[in-house]
Amino acid sequence: MVGITKNRVRKQGKWDSKSMLTAYEEVKAHRLTVRQAAKQYGVPRTTLQRRLSGKVDIAARASRPTVLTAAEESELKDYILHMESIGFGLTLKDVCQLGFQMAEKTGRPHPFNKEKKHAGFDWFCGFRERHPELSLRKPEGLSAARAIMLNPNVINGHFVKLGELMDRLNIKDKPSQIYNADETGLSLVHTPSKVVSLKGKRTVQSKTSGDRGENVTVLGCASASGHFLPPFIIFKGQRLSDSLTANAPPNTLFGVSKSSFVDTDLFETWFKKSFIKEIGSKRPVLLVLDGHASHISITTIKTARQNDIHLYCLPPHTTNHLQPLDKCVFKSVKAQYNRSCEAFLKKNPGKVITRYDFCGIFKEVFYNSFSMGNAISGFEATGIYPFDPSKVKLEHMQASTIETVFVNAHEPTVIAPQPVNDELTVIAPQPVNDELTVIAPQPVNDELTVIAPQPVNDEPTVIAPRPVDDEPTIMEPSTSKQADHVSQSSDSVHVRMFDNILKRPSVDKIFNGKKSRRITKSRCLTSDEILKELQDKEKSKQDEEAEKIRKREERVAKRQEKEKEKKQKRDDREKAKLEKQKKGKSKQSKKTNENQEPTEQQPSDFCGHCDGYYWDDEEGDDDWWQCKGTCELWFHETCTGLYGKSTELTQFVCNNCLD
């Protein structure tokens, strides 16, 4: 099929629907002929004839009939919007493939490419024109954790707990006593903004300070009345210098860490030196925070309780919609920071942005983006002040509406009646055994079979195992929602036709009876319950650490004892080996004959090197070794030149024999 070209003039559908209807009525009333009516009202004669003959409905559009009917296209449109709302949006290629599959399913002739198995771009353009509410958009990334946590149960629980806390503190109408604090990271290598360039140019570049830049963390805090506290800037490193902190906004607090991220000690420093000092004397004060580990410490909580400050922790992975600074301030901060970096590089073409230039650049950002209007808008958009839970729309939580199928790991599978592929099968309850049986979908043909519902009770149906081989069969999860009732009307048949094409994702979740330790709700950190919980955790952590140290010391002591035993055994083996390998005249014989004088001196009684007499040696002197050469003389061990080398002494040969 030839692709649609831009600004192409169409030859069809130039007539007006009202003119066609008037011409149709005139011919039906026999006041004009077909040719006269077509000429008078400016409509095609053949088009008018087809409507008069009944081949085409009079209300049909001024174009060729579409491959899919209006009801089928409406179903496809609803499926596209549903998939986008739950975070699984369809691409242009996906939609064209679905269009081809639906056309094949209907069995009607179509002009789509059967080799590539997808509809053409022309069909997609027409489909989008017939449904102008659809458009191609580039989606934002949504993490799996945010998709799960942004659900009505978590959000409603957050607003209930926050409302109760604000009522108890009586600060719902006191915006100057409601604060939010959060951190954001700014890189020394900025993100370039869009620029005006030559149309069609393939490479458009913008200068930055490097490929990867050092991160600088900025902790900001604002009240619902629009008052901003001085920022807290954290650099990567171990010490600060005057050149690093120059040109910063007034009263700015500085800190350093190994990673440039905030930690518990830095947050405690900011809380004591900046927050308590800057908020004034009005009490009580509510400080809204996210659940970062640096915000939750016993020291900070005790300090807050002493100063009548209440710390409220938002639910995890929901701060993009519940935290004021995230919602309306930090996006403006990053955009203004990028513009300020671009302006700095333009003014200084030969320089790059370093950590020593950061404070001067950030000063302009602080005055422009940390504004009263942004702070007030943030608290209003998140429903904190004025307190309004309806500010978080249902469309923000649609990604958490994926159908979840709970499977008990200790019980047989219980499945409600569901349509499998193209055939709706209702199976009555049957006795099952205690083992978990998994059923595979039965092969069905392409024809649609509708079975009327059987009288069953309100309890879910238990599908019993089929007589199969010894190997277990696997049942695929259903891709369509459970039917409340089955109708034999054409609408029900139409809906069932595309169930195996327009599959809606579902999640199989195994319930094993264990309670999750993950935190999934908001908390008031300064409450007695949370403080006691943290103290118990700290004590448990200290006990575990002490136990680890004790076990480590025991392991070291055992290891040293084993090494000592091994060394002793090794020394004993070496000593025994030396004793076994020693050759020479026995000291025992010398000891037994120490009181006897030899009757005659033999040449073997003298050392072959120093002529020392054997019987003159006292007990404990050197051992004697015999030469293995031709002379067979005896030598002191010290005279052999191999003292202590017992292995070599066993093969000792004197210098005379070697010569």
CATH class of the domain at 144-191 and 213-396: Alpha Beta
Mean pLDDT: 80
Distance between the termini: 105 Å
Figure out the total of helices: 21
Shape: elongated
Can you walk through the features of this model?
Among the domains are: 70-130, no CATH class; 144-191 and 213-396, 2-Layer Sandwich (Nucleotidyltransferase, domain 5); 403-504, no CATH class; 587-594 and 603-658, Herpes Virus-1 (2-Layer Sandwich), CATH 3.30.40. β12 (624-626) and β13 form a beta hairpin. Residues 412-494 and 583-592 have low confidence and may be disordered. It has helices at 17-28, 34-41, 45-53, 70-85, 92-106, 121-130, 144-149, 152-169, 242-245, 264-278, 298-306, 319-322, 324-328, 330-347, 355-369, 372-381, 490-497, 528-581, 587-592, 646-649, 655-658; strands at residues 178-187, 215-223, 232-236, 253-257, 285-289, 309-313, 403-408, 419-420, 423-424, 506-511, 523-524, 624-626, 634-636. By secondary structure, the protein is α/β, with parallel strands linked by helices. The longest helix has 54 residues, at 528-581. It has a seven-stranded mixed β-sheet, with helices on both faces. A two-stranded parallel ribbon has the order 7-10. A two-stranded antiparallel sheet has the order 8-9. The N and C termini lie far apart (105 Å). The relative contact order is 0.08.
